[in-house]
Amino acid sequence: MPKNSDAPPSLAIQDGRIRATYWIETPFPLEDAVAVLAGEQSCGTFTRLPGETDALRAAASAVVERLTPLDSVAQPSLPMRSLPSRLGPHPRYQRAEIEISWPFDNLGASLPNLMATVAGNLFELREFSGLRLLDLRLPPSFAQAYPGPQFGISGTRALLGLQGRPLIGTIIKPSVGLSPAATVSLVRQLADAGIDFIKDDELQGNGPHNRLRDRVDAVMPVLKKHAQRTGHQVMYAFNITDELDTMLHNHDYVRAAGGNCVMVTVASVGLPALVHLRKHSQLAIHGHRAGWGLYSRSPHIGMEYAAYQQFWRLAGVDHLHVNGLRNKFSEPDASVIRSAQACTRPMFAPPYPGCEVMPVFSSGQTAEQVADTYQALGSTDLIYCCGGGIMGHPGGVPQGVLSLQEAWEAAVRGVDLEVHAQTHPALAQAIAAFRS
Amino acid sequence: MPKNSDAPPSLAIQDGRIRATYWIETPFPLEDAVAVLAGEQSCGTFTRLPGETDALRAAASAVVERLTPLDSVAQPSLPMRSLPSRLGPHPRYQRAEIEISWPFDNLGASLPNLMATVAGNLFELREFSGLRLLDLRLPPSFAQAYPGPQFGISGTRALLGLQGRPLIGTIIKPSVGLSPAATVSLVRQLADAGIDFIKDDELQGNGPHNRLRDRVDAVMPVLKKHAQRTGHQVMYAFNITDELDTMLHNHDYVRAAGGNCVMVTVASVGLPALVHLRKHSQLAIHGHRAGWGLYSRSPHIGMEYAAYQQFWRLAGVDHLHVNGLRNKFSEPDASVIRSAQACTRPMFAPPYPGCEVMPVFSSGQTAEQVADTYQALGSTDLIYCCGGGIMGHPGGVPQGVLSLQEAWEAAVRGVDLEVHAQTHPALAQAIAAFRS
To answer: pTM score, two decimals?
Structure first.
């Protein structure tokens, strides 16, 4: 298993090189295997080619900055092609953490080309029986070239006039299949209950049964009237994930209707389309990470969120999903907290922008995980989304939302959840209903 | 290990549903685990929610069309959170192949939303200790909504006036670090040697040391003069992978200079940007799959190329990389051939376009793998790229290219390589140099 606890913080560096750390496993001598990786991902292969002069190598080579051996195992973690006989019949598979650096000039400040450099063909190299990208440190040229989040944490708070606690949020469920009319009846209930944030499910895009425009037409008048009546602004993240022109048009449609947020599934739209949307956008961009399991489920291949989320922050999302404690998925709690911390850690040192974004907690969340979440993060700068934790509350949606506000109030004040529940019946009901 | 040999062919279906097959592994009762997957990726979760009416379920549910149990194992292939005690202390982890179908109306003909549906949050589900997307069958609405390849196999051949044999190609090496002037001196040699296809490395984008425009300015006059002098048209795939506006401008620049092909790393640019480029493009689009190892290295998480490549074909690439036999990466030969066959298998039945694209063989290829490649595919509809197989030929670039032409001539005629080599010295030299 990769160990990340002592990985260096992802702060910008000033020497202009691009740096990435990896966890690797290989039956080959470590130095040889790492040299292959550095060569494949920069100017050369292991064999020197015609044209590969000393000057070219000096200018363009990737450099192995650090090589820290870890444990070794008797079996390869991932299948390999047959090994050369010089490794003997029973080679050990040595693990290590390595740092590789690249000259900025190899690619310039281009996120798509950065992806091909730090997370491209290297995962397939036959020298490795395991390879994970752990973290990334980019020179400030990337901060200059890319927009980063337009609203981020403080801008999102400003849009809602909300301080001192997280945004309490929910996801419209059933995920897909509701009509716009059924959606808005749920939205009305949620707004009346005092919810801060509502989002479409990532499966609810722009299908014929519930088109984005029809949903906007149904939802926005209700939220606008609610704000006029109560002064309470709700953020609704309309899922505009789609082809580029449709996304831009639908962004404009949401904005014209008075909306404040659009959502995209980042892996589905990709970096250039997100950057294009960000430059065009006047709304907060809510980043969903559906498909993240492809990178995270195996301990032996893939990427840590510490690296992955940097691409999307620079490209311009304002919020990013991080799962939640004791979630319904397979991700361990430590990984969830590490991901949330990564989202709020500055990518660059001043005077460059840190590109901090709001982590979005979601999946099986109720009042029960609030204290642990706050304790782990020491911050309320997050969106806390509950489905069953609101809809499944015995007192219905209003008590569901209230129980979450109360749980966060207790956490921030340092009051024990049970003690707070003694004088807060919505919270007491939530504990009784959701404690397993 | 997932078994795909008996997977159904990816032909279009007419009932309007979207179909995906998966390999799964789970310690839970198979039917329960699969119901969770189908529920999570459509209208509901395992618990029925308010608003989830029978009519909604009938209209929007994903359906388990097939569930074929395979073997079982004693240990989970991927880490899981703790299991419920009802599964006992030593559950078996049952494997199966399943087919899930979705109503078209859940999402409409949208590739980004299709990605979130068939390859979204399901990989993280705690019910599974393994999950791979094997194949995909899309209704013809996708063929109507998306452009597909503009040139494909026949269009690429027409651009070069080349029939009856593969495009013999190469990649400019060193991958990165060459100046435009050094690049063009290599290009001149390659063109004079009779090469059909040259591509930039996926690491060579638009960095300050070798800007795309400078490369075009250097390369295109040489290739144009070569074509005028010899009548032999060379295809050069300029890597324009970048942010959207830069990609479009650089496409236009290549076209204005008389180029015939641009290259993008598909995972780096994403679906909407590729579709946008395709609609704008007048050149063949060469699709590089750097990063594919993330999906393919683990037998227990990820995606088969049979599914993955369909997204990029519909989005509009004309060529797609498939690695090569006995490659320098970790991919087994059977997987390479399966990938190449997938690229040329029609995605839709007539009257809809099949969206066939040209598979690109690359990585450690020489004259040595030609006969096996032809035997496995029974076709010359491919691009056969060699680096060392050309540059490392003892007779230099001209003899390197010639040896590959001779090897393909032998394969197509059904002549044994060694027999052909007796009268073809370039081929004989290649065999002597590259046979390990």
So the answer is: 0.96
